[in-house]
User: Fold this.
Amino acid sequence: MATKDGFIKHKVAHHFDTAEQEFETAKLGMWAFLGQELLFFSGLFVAYGVFRFLYPEMFIDAHHQLSWKMGALNTVFLITSSFTMVMGVRSAQLSQKKLMLKYLIATFILATAFLVVKYFEYAAKFHHGYLPSNWFTGEGLFENMHLFFGLYFVLTGLHGIHVAVGMGLIAWLIIRGNRGEFHADYYTPVEMVGLYWHLVDLVWIFLFPLLYLIG
Amino acid sequence: MSNNNSHHFIPPLKFYIGTFLALLALTFVTVFVALFDFGSMNIVIALIIASIKASLVLAFFMGLRWDKGVNLVIVVSSVVFIGIFFLFIFADIATRGDFDELEDGVHGIKSPVRILSEGHSGGSNH
Assistant:
């Protein structure tokens, strides 16, 4: 199957007329999924909006327990990973296999760094008892501070799960890419995972100021 | 190898590098403006900056600028429906009074919010 340049030729599925049609179909499906993802997260953002509207002082007091420096560091990690991802897609479009693998590995490492920082943040919250609902044992001026940490853990936790899923997908791309499956004529999975990864970045762009930089 | 995909438009590198630098700069701006207190405008400013960043990611990293219109329609309709979601929830939440008189007495909509220690400004207490 492998051609002389080390790439594996892609076979267009029988129900598509052309590779172009196959690619555009996959992309439309991916965007429909991403549109759903936005709506899926929006419920939590609305909950955030309602509680912040009702208890603005509590939110300001609670967010002092978060480290904006760690949040900013993670923002830089995610933005950089989005850049390496888009460069990985570009390398695939240009059939630059080695460069594509380098960019994908860089993206994977940055995602790992994001989750490591997140681990240290979570560990500090657990240690001081800044937890949701009945588990809250932290110190604060307001007795309903657990509401903020409920939102914090569900929003960042759901986002963190997306990062972990993205890492799995990037690892899958690295394995397939290493076999030579992605090149100028076929890079659909790279493009789709790229879109997903940018959405993860997009959600964090809103989470960072809303959780770490209140008031 | 077939040539079916090779006419895909590959955006010039400058768009990706420019977007990357703009996102880093705007991250710095959003942290910097958070040092100042603009009162109720704080969240508006933060959301405007975040929306600019999100638009840059959508337009360039996600390629909507060069993409088929139908993908943009999906994103825009998602955003519109999120807007409706917020609008209807806040049409309720933001127009309520602070108290509700029911058969068993007067209830504070925002209760229970009790300040646990003194010396902190703000915080409704009813």
